[in-house]
Specification:
6 helices
Length: 102
């Protein structure tokens, strides 16, 4: 999905407020979520912002810093995949459409 410059700037401004734990309206959140469902770039920006909001900025020299910079889950042990107890299909069930069809 191609983003116009105006849309990209609006999304980045909203995502910045999310990362700083500032107020974001429901309509703004829905706007970002709509674009995140169709764009891996926006989805990654949103994941990074949520990680920054939840855990603060991690030391970039640590494994947590790497995980955060890549926009991955893993800073809390509940989000780790356990092959003995988890089904891989269920684990990816909350992913956006572009991940599930890969």
């Amino acid at each position: 999905m191609f983003l116009s410059n105006q849309t990209r700037l609006k999304i980045q401004e909203i995502i910045k407020r999310i990362s700083l734990d500032k107020e974001v309206s429901l309509s703004e959140r829905l706007f970002v979520e709509k674009h995140a469902k169709h764009s891996s770039t926006v989805w990654t920006w949103l994941r990074k912002a949520n990680s920054l909001r939840r855990y603060g900025k991690q030391n970039q020299e640590s494994i947590n810093g790497l995980i955060q910079s890549l926009g991955l889950d893993g800073l809390d042990s509940e989000s780790h995949f356990d092959p003995k107890n988890d089904d891989i299909a269920d684990w990816f069930s909350g992913s956006p459409d572009w991940v599930r069809r890969s």
